[in-house]
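Re: [ENG-882] Designed sequences occasionally contain unexpected residues at chain ends

Forwarding the minimal case from QA. Structure tokens:
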């Protein structure tokens, strides 16, 4: 059963340079217990669509043109600010990039945890304190009891990010949304945080939306991958088929620009040609067409719908071309002398 279902979400920004078409008729759902990895280069609409459904979009300049976001039978887009606020941090936990700006520098970590817990639970007194200690312990912060009385600047970057995850997880959310939560962290700390999220999923069955521009992180964490570009879904499906049999030239480009870990010889990395589209003047058809060497005339003219591919349930692509056939033809040409 879908825990979250986004329907026809379109978000624009009014800017001096014109209307920015940030999110374009976005449709997708997340099943209960699923981990969805959302990837795409910077500017693809990953953050904006999440902010929109959580009621956190700055309006103006932002504008929700249309859309519904059904969470457990309620349309988040139709809720009052007050109702949304009680869902945020409660049933939906959030972890954003840059804990330095998300945590309040003048309040102790304990105070900030307490605030979330008292707003969303009935815990008081000793039970409340115990829960706070437990949360810091769960996210792997040593000496949790002593740490509660410290301020954010007394924590390292990795430890602050753990605090953010503790706050995001504080009320056992049914849905945890993380937006570039490990991007600023070094690889070792990132690996520890990913372990932690896996543990939380295992222990609490939490549904997760993990937004990142890092394909490697998605490979490790997600059940389903969703590739976004130009405020649209280019490809989506279970991680394995999407990684091994990509159908969108954009996904293919992202995968081939990944360094091959453990490879003995250094493979030359593919670089996707061109630059991301100017969303105040988006291309009329497939947004990736201008950068796609395989683009057909139709790609430049008409937006492709997201359709089922192959025989793997849930694998979908928005493309007018047949990527496997094109790649096969290309490698045949390369092999003929
Ligand atoms: N406050 C804003 N004003 C104008 N345009 C914005 C604003 N925030 C985001 N955008 C635009 O919306 C598009 C999607 O951005 P975003 O969702 O942040 O991308 P990302 O996938 O990197 O998270 C981009 O073209 C971005 O420039
Ligand atoms: Mg973002």
């Amino acid at each position: 059963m879908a825990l979250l279902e986004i329907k026809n979400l379109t978000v624009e920004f009014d800017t001096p340079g014109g209307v920015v078409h940030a999110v374009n008729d976005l449709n997708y759902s997340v099943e209960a217990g699923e981990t969805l990895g959302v990837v795409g280069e910077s500017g693809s609409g990953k953050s904006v669509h999440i902010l929109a459904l959580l009621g956190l979009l700055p309006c103006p300049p932002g504008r929700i043109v249309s859309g519904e976001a059904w969470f457990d039978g309620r349309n988040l887009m139709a809720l009052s600010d007050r109702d949304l606020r009680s869902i945020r941090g409660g049933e939906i936990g959030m972890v954003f990039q840059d804990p330095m700006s998300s945590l309040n520098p003048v309040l102790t970590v304990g105070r900030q945890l307490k605030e979330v817990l008292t707003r969303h639970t009935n815990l008081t007194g000793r039970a409340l304190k115990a829960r706070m200690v437990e949360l810091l312990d769960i996210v792997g912060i040593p000496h949790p009891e002593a740490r509660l009385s410290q301020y954010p600047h007394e924590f390292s970057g990795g430890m602050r990010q753990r605090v953010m995850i503790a706050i995001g997880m504080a009320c056992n959310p049914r849905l945890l949304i993380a937006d570039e939560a490990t991007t600023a962290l070094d690889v070792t700390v990132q690996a520890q945080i990913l372990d932690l999220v896996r543990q939380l999923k295992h222990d609490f069955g939490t549904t997760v939306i993990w937004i990142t521009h890092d394909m490697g992180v998605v490979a490790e964490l997600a059940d389903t991958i969703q590739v976004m570009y130009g405020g649209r879904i280019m490809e989506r499906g279970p991680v394995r088929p999407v990684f091994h049999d990509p159908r969108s030239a954009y996904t293919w480009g992202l995968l081939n620009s990944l360094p091959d870990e453990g490879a003995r010889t250094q493979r030359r990395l593919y670089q996707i040609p061109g630059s991301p589209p100017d969303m105040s003047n988006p291309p009329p058809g497939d947004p990736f067409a201008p950068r796609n060497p395989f683009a057909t005339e139709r790609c430049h003219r008409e937006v492709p719908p997201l359709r089922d591919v192959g025989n793997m349930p849930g694998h979908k692509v928005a493309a007018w071309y047949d990527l496997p056939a094109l790649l096969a033809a290309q490698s045949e040409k390369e092999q003929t002398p």
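QA comment: On inspection the terminal residues look reasonable. The pocket of adenosine-5'-diphosphate (ligand 1) is lined by residues 13, 15, 20, 22, 40, 42-48, 58, 61, 279 (CB under 6 Å). Proposing we downgrade this to a documentation issue.
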